[in-house]
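Structure ticket #2291
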Amino acid sequence: MSLVQSPNAVVMICPWNFYSNPETSRDNAFQNITNNDDKDISGLAKKEFDSMVDKLESNGVRVHVFNDYGEKETPDSVFPNNWLSTHSGGNIAIHSMYSPSRRRERRNDVIELLKSEYRVQSVIDFSGLEYDDIFLEGTGAMVLDHIERVAYTAKSNRANDICLERFCTTFGYEPMAFESADKNGTPIYHTNVMMAIGTDYAMVCLNMIVDLDRRAEIKLRLEESGREVIDLSFEQIDQFAGNALELTNRDGKSVLALSQKAYDVLTAEQMATIEKSATLLPISIPTIELAGGSVRCMLAGIHLKRRTRD
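Resolution: structure written out below.
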């Protein structure tokens, strides 16, 4: 069952011209653009990226690496899960992006690699909705329960109700949207910074779900799926504790990829709950986190069947 929820392969994009994008900072409270004058920031990000790839591969996760040499001015390309998602049955979705600079991140070579290495039946492109100001930024905007087929979605500039309905109808998910707010009352820009769903547990900051009835409904829905709910605090979310992704290694065992910063703020009890079914895999990426995303944002999970080779 872990493979249904937790992919054993990912796409990652290596940044060669990394910086924290001022264009996306207007609604991303996690960003820090004050370090953009640091001449070493791009080199540091690349070193963190390479180290993360090594750590994932050494723990049995297949990684498909693509390079972004910065020719199109795409500072956020290290976060491909927003424009690309893959789904069981051989389906790929290309998503509509809120920020014009982020629309340049989409690339055909990634799609062609997936077609050649995995069994792909269809590619559904939602990017045309950008002309109508309708956006749904992939598995940033949605946290998907692939087992129960539910798309948990915090409403924001980057998660339009119309597009959510279209996605869910196309790929067979039930939409479960909700209003959210951080400790300052600011809406959460991407659901995947406040919520992560593994096979046997779910990590979520319940207090960020504004409507109390909806909060109780989501908690119950997660519990009814058989998962233990790990309630994260506002402070833990600030350190990206909700931005994690469960993966499956070559031995069929689960690992939870998260940042070192996130790992450091988990309680012993929370860790023990996760470790019942998954090995914690902390990865240090402090420079990349300046851009307002963390480990989960860097991973476009591959939920496709791999082609058999002769």
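Closing remark: The domain at 2-301 is CATH 3.75.10.10 (L-arginine/glycine Amidinotransferase; Chain A).
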